[in-house]
Amino acid sequence: MKTKQVSVFLENKSGRLNEVAQILGNADINISAFTVADTSDFGVLRLIVSDPEKACEVLKENRFSVRTTDVVLVNSPNRPGALSRMLQILSAEGVFIEYLYAFSMDNDTAVIVIRPTDIDKCVEKLENHKDDLLGKNGHYRL
């Protein structure tokens, strides 16, 4: 499923990540997943939140540089080989992935956040290959 991801540009200094968490918490916005990529001078905090538009609004009000990006969320079996199976299909279909990250919902399910260069192609190819992704015991859901 396509969803909006919030990206926040942060200076690499103590407390900045906590500021974002406090601002979002005070605005009653839940963070479901996040990842941080950094360089020596700054970081990019990528978030899946309960209300992306409101998150951008409150963060901009607090002088953070923010933008939204479309990403694909895939519910995947949380077991060995599931990620590889999905990545092999996307690679064979010519879907280039800029980055991805994942989190576990429980012992059975992981959610994979994918940022492909062509989001519609990624969704189409995953939907076209649902049977291939399922395997014997698997379940995938966009």
CATH fold-level topology of the largest domain: VC0802-like
Strand content: 35-45%
Oligomer: single chain
Series of H and E elements: EHEEHEHEEHH
Terminal CA distance reads: 4 Å
* Tally of distinct domains: 2
Radius of gyration: 16 Å
Strand order of the largest sheet: 2-3-1-4-6-5
Structural class: alpha+beta
Secondary-structure arrangement, i.e. CATH architecture of the largest domain: 2-Layer Sandwich
Tally of contiguous helical segments: 5
Helix content: 25-40%
Offer a few descriptive terms.
VC0802-like, single chain, 5 helices, 6 strands, alpha+beta
What is the structure about, briefly put?
It comes from Mariniphaga sediminis. The chain folds into two domains: 2-69, VC0802-like (2-Layer Sandwich); 71-134, 2-Layer Sandwich (VC0802-like), CATH 3.30.2130.
Question: Could you explain the architecture of this structure?
Answer:
This is Amino acid-binding protein. The chain has 142 residues and is an alpha+beta fold. The chain folds into 2 domains: 68 residues, VC0802-like, CATH 3.30.2130.10; 64 residues, VC0802-like, CATH 3.30.2130. The chain is elongated. The termini are close together.
Topology:
Blueprint: E1 2-11, H1 16-26, E2 31-38, E3 42-49, H2 52-61, E4 65-77, H3 82-92, E5 97-104, E6 109-116, H4 119-128, H5 130-134
Antiparallel strand pairs: 1-3, 1-4, 2-3, 4-6, 5-6
